[in-house]
Amino acid sequence: MKHSSTISLAQVALMAACILVLGFIPPIPTGILPVPIVVQNLGIMLAGVILGPKKGTASVALFLLISLITGGPAQFFSPTSGYLYTWLIVPFLIGFCLQQFHIQRFSLTLVIVWLWGVLFMDVAGGIWLAWYTHAKLTSTLISSLVFIPGDTVKAILTALIGPRIVAQIRKK
To answer: Which of 29, 47, 99, 163 stands 20 to 30 A from 114 (CA)?
Structure first.
């Protein structure tokens, strides 16, 4: 195996491990939805910023595979499953946009991360929740607004931390 392949594999595994560790932070129940506020999606956003579209998506896929093996398939067929499915797409979208448009500025990074890591994730998760529970789509989307402030904070942290980690990786 080539040196760069080994490094890439290690980066993917390390990011998957970071996402796993973020899952140990207890979720905060909203009281409005059956979906709690979690810190784990911070790792999903960081995967796209730090590793880019391919490796970021691979790290989330590895994390989801580990989750499937250790937790079973039930978590992929529940009211919260829509969020898990978007987790597989979000790092690709974030990483692709940042690379495609050569985005370097904090404000533009934040817009990309917020668009895909907050708005897309919350809307898609709300659509899945409505479909799964047979609830009104407008009700679940309005209820999903409860996630926007916390997810926005995670997007800000991602836009601040992610590019700094990338800069450190490039120095080496």
So the answer is: 29
Cβ–Cβ < 8 Å for 56, 18? no
Location of structure tokens 């907050």: 118
Question: pLDDT digits over 15-59, tens only?
Answer: 999 999 999 999 888 777 666 788 999 999 999 999 999 999 999
Which alpha helices (DSSP H) does the chain contain, by range?
A: 3-22, 40-71, 81-100, 106-114, 121-133, 137-143, 148-171
Half-sphere exposure of 96 (CA within 13 A, CB side): 10
Q: Do the beta carbons of residue 144 and residue 121 sit within 8 Å?
A: no
Residue pair 53/96 in contact (Cβ under 8 Å)? The answer is yes
- Reading the block at residue 12, the tokens are 């993917």
